[in-house]
Protein 1
Amino acid sequence: MGPFVTAKIPGLFKRGSVYWYRKVYLPRHLAKVIGAGEYCVSLRTRDLTEAIRLAEDHRKRAADIIANAKRTAGDPEQAARVHVDRLLRDDLRDRLSRQRDDHSLDAEERGVTSRIENVTERLRRGGLSRSDYAGLREELRALQIVLDRIHGDVPAADDAKSPRLSQIVTLWAKDAKASSSVRGKRATERSAYPLRFIPENFQP
């Protein structure tokens, strides 16, 4: 059976005998800023009165998240930065959990380098909206960071912005970075890649 919806209390429903609260993030474009399409949490209670009280607390939390996301979305540069930073954190976690061999590193490097060239060319051509320009600039920054990671360069733990991610960075540095032979080869080749094509004063 699906969840039983408590119609009188928006967002309140039951899964089995336990009450939950759910709020879909609207407008939908906010999901990209927030990093999720909805706010959904178990209230960990079977009592309706307690569930109603807890649901109101979570309704306020969800409203705060939406309000903050709207402010961020109103600034294209900040919205792009938030989205890309989240992707970079996911990339670190993936590198921690899934080690690459030399073949996969080579393939990954080729793909990232090709995308850098494509993004750079699009920025050079201009004619972009402010939002598109901000998104491509942040993507270029992220691609350069990922390429550094492929080469075995470890980001500073201070950039993690959270103790948990700092730990991930430290573990990744010890257990999952490129082999010394691959790292040496890439360090030599790296200078051949003109990565920072776009000057700081470039305007769309």
Protein 2
Amino acid sequence: MGSPPREPERRPDEGQVEVRLTRGFWMGKYEVTQGQWKRVAGEFPGKQPAGEGGKFPVVEVNYAEAEGFCKKLTELGHGSGSLAKDWEFRLPTEAQWSTPAGPGRQPPRRSATSSAAGRRTSKGNRTMG
């Protein structure tokens, strides 16, 4: 994790470190769509581009807003019984985000809503998202 010393725009605090994930996790394959956002969270916190619509990805949301979406999605899943009580939807950690790319490969550019990954709490070691 981190970035190689010669990477363009690398900051001094981005030194490479080895990270080992000890628990599995699930990650969404596609970005959250505008239609999914509206069904879960209601109106957008910011303006979406004109002419897009329900099948297009959500843009112009910040980290806190994306976390709020994940929290609401978790509440809906728990309420409907479709999500185990000790599972949650959340944004992936940097290590989780880097894992799908594979060793030595760069993951795709991250957006706040690109993956609502989930995890099981301390009650178990399986994860879902």
Protein 3
Amino acid sequence: MSGPQSYSRNVVSSLAMLKREQKLQTMNRIGKKFTELKQRGETALIPFITAGDPDLDITLEIMKALAEAGADCIELGIPFSDPLADGLVNQLAAQRALEAGTTVPGVLEACWTALRPGGRLVVNAVTVESEAVVLRWHGDAGGDLTRIAVDRAAPVGGFTGWRPLMPVTQWAVTKPWPP
């Protein structure tokens, strides 16, 4: 078959192949780890802790202990004041961290300082203020920036429609080795 229909199918097929290839090329270490674990029928251990609770020095000690204990990845929450967002336990941890003077720039500085050369840092920002900090760090240290937008199905009258959630700006960077 030739002509417009054949051309259209070839373009769609080529685009699908290109998309699969790009996905494989851009898969990060976290994605590779999940794929590896899935192939073995295993799951990942990804503990969550609040940065700065009770202070940044202890946060870094906790992160090191979790990594040594086998955590595949550590989710480090940046404290903010929204009592309805994450439930009581996380809100109390955020409150303690904020009272200890924890800030987004301070958390990034502490993590970068503690990160070994060759180590990978992935930061997710959801506020304009935290995104501004991430963009400054990206300008200084490089890495990859990705904007992730997610929609959730929700009632619209008697029907269901898509409602957007807050977009996430993700910065992923590997700390370089010294020259």
Protein 4
Amino acid sequence: MIYLEPNVRFTSHTLYNNAAQGGKHCPDISPEKSDNEFFKTKLTRDNLIYFTSSFKMRPNTRIVIGHVNPDADSIVSAIAYAHLQQKLVKKFENETGIKSNRTIIAASTAKPDSQTQAILDRFGVNAPMVIEDVDSVNKNNARHPIIMVDHNELSQSVKGTKVTDVSEIVDHHRLDFEGVNPISVHTEPVGATATVVADLYEKNDITIPTKIAGILLGAILSDTFSLTSNTTHKDITMATKLAKIANIDKERFGEMILNAAAVDYYEKPMDEVINSELKTYRMGPKTIGVSQVIVTSPQDFLETKKDETLQYLATQEKTQELKPKQKYDHMILMVTDVKGKVSYLLFTDKSSKLIDQAFQTKSRNNQLYLPGAQSRKTHVIPNLTKVFQSSNVA
């Protein structure tokens, strides 16, 4: 095989067929030759251009971007994967002598939150450009390919994203993407997308720079609550490697990251507290909104902000008569202790039946205590999904 562009492989047979479709033929390469014989064929710069000339290339700027309401894993993975792709483009150019003219940019759907900014500041890394709507950067009917990181659902993507825009996915969540074209998908059941990205550096034999290693470590520690929740052996092994490259104590770094995650809910309006970490999920015929707020004292939040929270959640849910056009059928807030490995779910009367079905319990007073729960992805979403996969849908 030969690399024509990063992450896209073609055999000699594929190359020949593409060239044939363009009405050209190269005597040195034929579909009858095996791949071993193909390796021995002298592939000159002209021959490569000869065979790639029939490909219809998409716009040469690719945007690596995470989900709306981005967290550390989303923003850091975009930065790191864009860097990796840039290195792969340069490697391709050096090995083939062909100028690809491809540009890879990292972007985010919003500015970093306080925790993400603390991670970036620790290693002197700038936040990526903010793109709130991809149509703002798509000019003259040319749509830039999107590389989705840390998500794969269009409902969580940057505004304006079309399914045909997506050229690649790098993620660690459940798969819920139905495309119309073949795309590259890198997904693993690990604690953070940053773990997947770091692994792709290793698989492509690209050295991880100190600063990139540092922010990747920060993203892993953030998404796994400092390797205490939703953590796999691969996360732990990768975190140790990255800490060594970044020359940092991962335990102390993890403590700093957790402290930076706590939300000052007295200083922010409730809509900002909830919407800053809100994720949207399509489950069967329903649209579910699940947000998460990390606090130093869940009890204080429940005592001082519960009523305000429930009022806001109710304003966002659909009702048949009053608000049929609202986006969400159910809205849920997960209140998580920054250190205590415990969470509470807050929800309206309308969502009580759904919660009771999902967690096989009888909730009271619009809240549910979840000991040991820290991860929305691991401890909440699978339970809700099972309800909608059964015939008894809430």
